[in-house]
Design goal:
Layout (H helix, E strand, L loop, with lengths): L9 H4 L28 H7 L4 H11 L9 H16 L4 E12 L3 E6 L2 E3 L2 E2 L6 E9 L5 H4 L8 E5 L5 H10 L4 E5 L20 E4 L1 H12 L5 E7 L2 E14 L11 E7 L9 H18 L7 E7 L7 H8 L3 H6 E7 L9 E6 L6 H14 L5 E3 L5 H6 L4 E7 L17 H19 L29
Parallel strand pairs: 5-6, 6-7, 7-8, 11-12, 11-13, 13-16, 14-15
Antiparallel strand pairs: 1-10, 2-3, 2-9, 4-8, 5-9, 10-12, 14-16
Helix pairs in contact: 2-13, 3-8, 3-13, 8-13, 11-13
Length: 468
């Protein structure tokens, strides 16, 4: 993270003539061009002086006590906590339920081969089951590889590659296999999904490339290999998750410009991960900025939302956006989305937009980051979070995230001790002042352009980005 370079103190700034984009500095008494100055002004300080990073940190500490998997009791407990926090600041908070077809991960995944235990992984949408049977290697598990094979009463050993995991499992099952083991085609663990539930699936687990190659060698040498595969607790069906929404209306109805800025995060986490950074950090920051903004005078509605089921496909945010009436969508001028904003071991702050182009959010944030840090926060194209459904509708939207990601992204090591208060403070200041720059009375900042829907986004927009 770049060192801050604030050129003026709050006391000095109050002696200047200021507007949102024409501020004179003490050292150089000239008007600096839009988005180029580095000065903290008195209006920024209305936000800066209220941010308390300890509040953010303490909320993360509460949320990260347990994983918050979508539709789990733990996620619902987080929803109730978030609602109570909003209400403690004086907001009316709405809990918005939504349904989706989901998967509950197995609580037991075991594999032994000839009595030797391995450490398998489970595929999303695998069914439960217990199978003990001879192992047979069937290459890539393609229709050609399985042509003429009868796998009845056997477990299929399949290499990753060429076709999807789901196709491999279906092909093997249709050839009579009672279970499937898929091994990686590269070093490292294999974590995958069968993409959707299917009654034809048989229990499927994953192993490493090295383990798979060793089993292939045994089978190719003519050895008989018996495997015992156990998957318990896996299930698929309709699940319910929730969004939480609170809103700060314009202070004076007579001066309400009719516009809405939406500040968002997701509150769910992946299985097994406490999710301190992903994304208790973003959720805690939404709550703190809601507290900060509560009594500030604004002519714009500021809406605060935390979404469920982001980790399994942006389901909560997509439900929220897709169920808004057209006239409500048209009122939204900006979406600031916070995801993973506090890891000490991630890189610098960046912004991601769905098309890689500047928009109202990036312009506002670059103006404030220039004032606060001496240089604008960079942006580029990127999906993988809850700004995408807003961007698809043509709403100016950006994800705030640090890049590259921390090494314990989506692991049990995503814990409170990895959180940087300095990074939390930095992002909260940039986003908070950027929102207030637009929402305050008589702002002179960038105005929203004519809205155009963003079509033909690449598939990767909907999934988490890889660790870099």
């Amino acid at each position: 993270m770049k060192k801050k370079n604030r050129l003026l103190t709050a006391a000095l700034a109050t002696t200047l003539t200021f507007g949102a984009f024409s501020v004179q500095t003490y050292a150089q008494p000239t008007v600096i061009a839009e988005q180029q100055y580095s000065v903290v002004n008195a209006l920024d300080n209305k936000v800066l002086n209220q941010i308390n990073v300890e509040n953010i940190y303490n909320i993360i500490a509460h949320l990260e006590q347990t994983p918050r998997v979508a539709a789990s009791p733990e996620e619902y407990a987080a929803v109730q906590y978030i609602k109570q926090q909003f209400e403690s600041y004086g907001y009316e908070a709405e809990v918005q339920p939504f349904e989706f077809f989901g998967f509950t991960a197995p609580h037991t995944v075991e594999l032994s081969v000839d009595g030797t235990s391995l450490s398998p992984g489970a595929f999303t949408y695998t069914p439960s089951g217990e199978v003990t049977a001879p192992l047979e290697y069937v290459g890539l598990g393609t229709p050609a590889a399985l042509a003429g094979k009868d796998l009845t009463g056997k477990i299929a050993l399949i290499q990753r590659g060429e076709i999807s995991f789901g196709e491999k499992v279906l092909n093997a099952a249709r050839s009579g296999a009672e279970g499937v083991i898929i091994f990686n085609n590269a070093a490292g663990a294999l974590n995958g999904t069968l993409s959707e539930a299917n009654d034809e699936y048989v229990p499927a687990v994953s192993i490493s490339q090295a383990e798979g190659n060793q089993l292939v060698s045994k089978l190719n040498n003519g050895e008989a290999v018996e495997a015992s595969l156990t998957v318990l607790g896996a299930s698929s069906g309709i699940r319910t998750s929730h969004n939480v929404i609170a809103s700060k209306k314009a202070t004076n109805k007579n001066k309400d410009n009719g516009n809405v800025i939406v500040l968002t995060s997701h509150h769910d986490s992946v299985p097994g991960a406490p999710g301190a950074n992903d994304n208790a950090s973003g959720t805690a920051m939404v709550l703190e900025l809601a507290r900060v903004m509560k009594d500030l005078p604004t002519d714009t509605e500021i809406r605060f939302a935390t979404f469920g089921a982001e980790e399994i496909g942006l389901i909560g945010s997509r439900h929220y956006v897709n169920t808004l009436p057209e006239n409500e969508l048209n009122r939204i001028v900006a979406n600031f989305n916070l995801d993973m904003v506090g890891s000490r071991d991630a890189g610098d702050l960046v912004m991601r937009t769905v098309d890689g182009q500047a928009n109202l959010v990036t312009k506002l944030a670059q103006s404030t980051s220039s004032r606060l840090n001496g240089e604008p926060t960079p942006f580029a194209r990127g999906g993988s979070s809850d700004h995408v459904p807003f961007g698809e509708k043509g709403i100016p939207a950006a994800l705030f995230i640090h890049s590259p990601l921390e090494p314990w992204y989506h692991t049990p090591e995503d814990t409170l001790d990895k959180i940087s208060k300095e990074k939390l403070q930095d992002v909260a200041e940039i986003v908070g002042t950027a929102i207030y720059d637009y929402a305050r009375f008589d702002n002179q900042g960038p105005k929203p352009k004519k809205r155009e829907k963003v079509d033909n986004l690449p598939k990767q927009m909907y999934f988490e980005e890889d660790v870099q």
